[in-house]
Amino acid sequence: MICPKPLKEAHEKLQQKIFVMLPEKWDKLYLYASVIDHFNDMQTGEMFFFYYPKGVLKKRPVNVYEVPTKFNIDEKQYFKLADDLYESIKELRKECMANHEKPWSNMTISIEKLTYRVEYGYEELNVSEFDSNARHLIWGYKYLKTPYESFNKKEKEIIDRYERSKKEPVKVFELPLYTREVAKELKTKKQMEKNLNFVTEEAIKEMEFKRNYVPKSQILNVK
User: Fold this and answer.
1) Are 118 and 135 found together in one domain?
2) DSSP code of 105?
3) Single pTM value for the model
């Protein structure tokens, strides 16, 4: 698949910002984000993001919003990274539209085995039969392989309803992982150490974050 240079660069920028948020070695990750258009140019959306730590005994996916507590990282700084990542996802959507692509309402990024894969969805989420909580549940069942038996009765009813529902078509896009040049820049920004410490205060200042802290697991944005 031929990828226009601006889109390729937008995807590489996303990869950088995803990797900066990971404080330990990992095998694979999955990220969901939505952007919903409303009247008066208003947008809402959400993002959730899980990774699998590297190692035989670490197979439970880690929710990145638990990372500050898990690794004793400053919450304010970390959630600024999350907010910045979501803004880049919105910029990617604008870039897709500028390249005459149909505007997508949601996307799932998966990175595994050196492959960066994106699934674009086109459902009208503001009129969907599944609300945000239901979508989160369904997404975990589909991508994180959450066992059906682990859901309660009400959750199973949602899963069953999803399985019976008409599935909207998705568009799949794949790229190799970031180029050597991007990897070099990422290494500089993260100031990586052998123990994979979190990005330093100096690196955060260098990135010039200008937005306010958003202390929510579901990041809501207004254009």
Assistant:
1) no
2) S
3) 0.77
